[in-house]
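thought: user wants a sequence for this fold. calling inverse folding tool.
action: design(structure=
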């Protein structure tokens, strides 16, 4: 069985230092308002963070795990998430890989230093000038304990890189290290403050182009190694990973060791016992390229040869332009940050190869999200001194201490006062049986013969072993026509549901195995929950756990019921629904008549019916095969009763859509709602069952109609008030041999409206809107829509008599413009057939057929009428003697 081990973190503290539990890294704030609280031993979501950073950030808590403040390298937020007094305009950057790191003053618990790094973007305007490496000072005692930035942006280097890491020095102070070109700069922080004269180390390689200063740098928790990732963009995308020796006494970096250049490396981190190095990187093909996590054994003679690929991130898993940061947490897991609302973890990072236990997107951030960075801290806070084994409640948890220094004495406090006198021990490597499950803070005070005394602390989480029954039975229908073989297909997800209900919790993990030995050894687990048994009553073994080593094993008996395959059971007519599918409810209702008291499920395929997967409903996509076959499952409780299929004959619905009607505004008006076609039945929303109803109010009236096959469809009649009627225009063709009137009505609300037309004031109506051979005169136009809402307009049709007879008999003795009173300013010009002008007369006067008093002979004469609006009309008139 794979054994998971955890290492205790040590913090080098001297006698002058308080012996409280060391929880400076208990709170994280990063990404887009993301936060985690590690005080319980496992990360708990914090949703009140204010930081919004693309990459670097840093958080510091006090020795008891209470938040003090956090920063993105530009802004500082206090413990109540307000901007700290004077806490703006630091010259770090939210887009720097490691924008900032917070270091305490080792001699004054109120003073902290925020170191901020350079950023590629700062060089863009002027490659010879950047923000450089700076620090600012925070006094946490100010502003009522919320703290204030007292001094800002003290410059240490005019130019550096986006890299910074920190470690305890061998004399109890701190080293803060950054990098530029081929140099490492180590600044010492003591009780006197920051020594502005760095220890400089010259080592390969030389990263001279400012566009290549991205990537992380970390010192190992034991202060002996340093790793650096170079993310290279110029002249082409590339990357490199290097390992160095670090001297915590002198701050010197030496012995450059090239590890790899096959990725655009970005994140680096050591395991808590400093034995393993992890690095993240991308392939060289843009933002959609695959990413990779690599592991190296730092203690090996040939470190590059120990490379192990922990995980390949495929494009389908995550798309990211950078490979994301790696950071140890207080729980000894290494966290990997990529854009999204979950972090991935390396759960047992001290172990080699697959035993490091990578867990993809295992930590939820709630409604917040990560980006590329995680909070930087003093790496020494994570150093391990002991191996802890056995975390199951009831087992003795063992603590095995290994140290390069000689231990004179050791005092253990297991943080378990309920255990009485067993809560403490002075053994080098003791065991302790915890009194209950839960989280415990274990502290160890160690006195060395050749080093200062030190305090070590660890949060140990004791897990319950699940309590479950030893046997569960999964019943399944027979898969084929051979009732005697006892073979079928099982969905083991059903077993998970049953076990979770039995345990009373869904917060457990379940794996399945074909043998008891495999289940106990956690080997050869089934990777597919769809399982085909080999014999009837075959037994599988379920390993049930919340923590991998605290498990119970249950037997899962796979029972196949014979005689349960009904084959093709029936053929039924099923009504189509809204032209898109069929009613599964109708199918279920039909089957329930034959299997009373059973649970009926309908499926697209036989396997779906067997596995109770993708059950169809009226809202489901239904894929009836070419034969019109659907499959069903009949269940009685958890027992599989029958599996069969039905042939479906789809019957179409009535083919009619929603209707519209209009109600006249007249008092007492009604409108008839009816259909042109006849249906088998009607059920109106008024409860009427007639083929039509008469209504007197506007609104929506629904009616369920059915055809002779019983297929129903609901139709809505929308009854609206009859809209007002407007005549768009009247086209008059007058002064013609044959005059005409054309009446135009445009109906936008209901283009199907039926109109009737009258030109005599509504005395008679025509369904045609065109009237021809209209005698000149005044006409009253009326248009009706149905029996209500009429519109009217008066028009004039102009014209002349076609002849006149000036013979003194008092009939047609003169020629004049008809309705001449409507043309008071019109002028008429008269001509003979040779074009000779005979006369000018006003339109309101008459012509007696003479020219200068002399009667003209019979014949045709031409006229030109000029109307007041400029219209010119020409024609002829016949004079008869």
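)
observation: tool returned 881 residues.
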């Amino acid at each position: 069985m794979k054994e998971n081990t955890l290492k205790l973190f040590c913090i080098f503290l001297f006698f002058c230092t308080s012996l409280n539990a060391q929880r400076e890294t208990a709170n994280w704030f990063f990404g887009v308002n993301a936060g985690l609280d590690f005080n319980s031993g496992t990360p708990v979501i914090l949703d009140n963070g204010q930081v919004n950073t693309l990459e670097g950030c840093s958080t510091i808590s006090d020795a008891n795990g209470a938040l003090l403040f956090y920063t993105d390298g530009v802004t500082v937020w206090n413990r109540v998430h307000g901007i700290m007094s004077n806490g703006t305009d630091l010259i770090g950057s939210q887009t720097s890989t490691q924008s900032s790191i917070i270091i305490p003053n080792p001699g004054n618990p109120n003073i902290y230093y925020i170191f901020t790094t350079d950023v590629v973007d700062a060089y863009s305007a002027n490659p010879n000038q950047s923000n450089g490496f700076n620090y600012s000072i925070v006094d946490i005692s100010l502003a009522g304990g919320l703290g204030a930035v007292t001094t800002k942006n003290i410059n240490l280097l005019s130019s550096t890189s986006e890299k910074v890491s920190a470690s305890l020095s061998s004399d109890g102070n701190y080293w803060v290290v950054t990098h530029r070109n081929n140099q490492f700069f180590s600044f010492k922080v003591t009780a006197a403050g920051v020594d502005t004269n760095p220890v400089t180390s010259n080592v390969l390689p030389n990263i001279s182009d400012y566009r290549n200063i991205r990537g992380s740098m970390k010192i190992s928790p034991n202060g002996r190694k340093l790793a650096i990732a170079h993310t290279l963009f110029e002249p082409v995308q590339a990357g490199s990973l290097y390992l160095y020796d670090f001297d915590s006494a002198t701050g010197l970096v030496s012995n450059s060791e090239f590890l790899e250049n096959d990725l655009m490396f970005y994140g680096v981190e050591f395991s808590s016992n400093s034995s393993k190095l992890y690095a993240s990187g991308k392939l060289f093909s843009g933002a959609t390229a695959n990413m990779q996590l690599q592991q190296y054994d730092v203690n090996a003679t040939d470190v590059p040869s120990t490379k192990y690929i922990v995980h390949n991130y495929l494009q389908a898993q995550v798309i990211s332009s950078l490979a994301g940061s790696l950071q140890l947490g207080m729980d000894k897991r290494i966290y990997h940050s990529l854009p999204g609302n979950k972090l991935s973890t390396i759960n047992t990072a001290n172990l080699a190869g697959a035993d490091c236990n990578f867990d993809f997107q295992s930590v939820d951030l709630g409604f917040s999200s990560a980006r590329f960075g995680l909070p930087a801290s003093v790496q020494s806070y994570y150093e391990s001194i002991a191996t802890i084994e056995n975390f199951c409640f009831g087992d003795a948890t063992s603590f095995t201490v290994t140290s390069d220094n000689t231990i004179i004495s050791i005092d253990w406090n297991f943080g378990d006062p309920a255990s009485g006198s067993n809560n403490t021990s002075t053994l080098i490597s003791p065991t302790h049986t915890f009194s209950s499950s839960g989280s415990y803070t274990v502290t160890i005070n160690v006195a060395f013969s050749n080093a200062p005394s030190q305090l070590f602390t660890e949060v140990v989480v004791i897990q319950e072993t699940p309590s479950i029954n030893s046997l569960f039975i999964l019943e399944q229908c027979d898969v084929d026509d051979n009732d005697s073989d006892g073979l079928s297909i099982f969905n083991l997800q059903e077993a998970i549901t049953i076990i979770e209900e039995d345990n009373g919790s869904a917060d457990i993990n379940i794996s399945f195995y074909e043998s008891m030995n495999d289940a106990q050894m956690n080997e050869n687990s089934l990777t597919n929950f769809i399982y085909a048994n080999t014999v009837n009553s075959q037994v599988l073994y379920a390993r049930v756990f919340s923590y991998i080593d605290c498990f119970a094993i249950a037997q899962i008996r796979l029972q196949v019921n014979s005689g349960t395959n009904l084959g093709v059971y029936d053929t039924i007519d099923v009504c189509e629904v809204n032209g898109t599918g069929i009613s599964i409810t109708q199918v279920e209702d039909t089957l329930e008549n034959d299997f009373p008291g059973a649970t009926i499920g309908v499926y697209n395929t036989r396997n779906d019916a067997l596995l109770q997967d993708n059950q169809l409903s009226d809202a489901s996509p239904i894929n009836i095969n070419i034969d019109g076959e659907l499959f069903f499952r009949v269940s009685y409780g958890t027992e599989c009763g029958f599996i069969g299929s039905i042939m479906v004959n789809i019957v179409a619905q009535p083919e009619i859509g929603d209707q519209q009607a209009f109600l006249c505004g007249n008092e007492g008006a009604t409108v008839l709602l009816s259909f042109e076609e006849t249906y088998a039945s009607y059920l109106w929303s008024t409860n009427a069952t007639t083929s039509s109803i008469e209504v007197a109010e506007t609104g929506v009236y629904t009616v369920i109609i059915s055809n002779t096959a019983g297929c129903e469809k609901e139709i809505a009649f929308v009854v609206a008030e009859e809209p007002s009627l407007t005549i768009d225009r009247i086209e008059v063709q007058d002064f013609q041999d044959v005059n005409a009137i054309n009446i135009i009505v445009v109906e936008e609300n209901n283009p199907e409206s039926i109109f009737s037309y009258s030109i005599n004031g509504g005395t008679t109506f025509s369904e045609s809107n065109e009237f021809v051979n209209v005698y000149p005169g005044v006409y009253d136009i009326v248009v009706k829509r149905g029996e209500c809402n009429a519109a009217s307009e008066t028009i004039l049709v102009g014209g002349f008599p076609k002849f006149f007879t000036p013979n003194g008999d008092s009939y047609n003795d003169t020629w004049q413009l008809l309705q001449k009173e409507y043309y008071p300013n019109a002028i008429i010009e008269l001509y003979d057939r040779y074009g000779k002008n005979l006369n000018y007369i006003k339109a309101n006067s008459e012509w007696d057929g003479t020219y200068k008093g002399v009667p003209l002979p019979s014949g045709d004469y031409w006229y030109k009428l000029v109307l007041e609006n400029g219209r010119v009309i020409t024609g002829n008139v016949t004079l008869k003697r």
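thought: summarizing for user.
answer: Here is the designed sequence. Residues 1-21 have pLDDT under 50 and may be disordered.
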